[in-house]
Amino acid sequence: MKEKILIVDDNKDTLEIISLILTDSGYEIKCQNHGNRIFEVINEFQPDLLLMDIMLGLTDGMAICQEIKKNIQYNHLPVIIVSGTYDLEQSLDLPGAPNDYLAKPFDIEALLNKVKKHLKAN
Hints:
- By secondary structure, the chain is an alpha/beta fold.
- The protein has one domain: 3-Layer(aba) Sandwich (Rossmann fold), CATH 3.40.50.
- The chain has 4 helices and 7 strands, in the order E-H-E-H-E-E-E-H-E-E-H.
């Protein structure tokens, strides 16, 4: 069974690029261009990993991440924040922080390495 990755980003091009890279690498992908109904989508798709932008229009990816991490039903789900505007290195140790982050623009190998690392750890 393929490992499943949920990608949440309000930029259509970013969704397409990440989806193509991960699909070509053998993962099952579901894309969403907003953070609305995130828990409903997680319940339906049952992802093994969540890749999410920090800025999702009116929704804050960090706030969604904090909700996931404080919810016992979802806190096992690895979250990688993808951001072109924030350096999140210092915040990875804070409560509710993502498991990792990837800076935009990103290197394909860096994306694949982070995905593999967090899927193995799960």
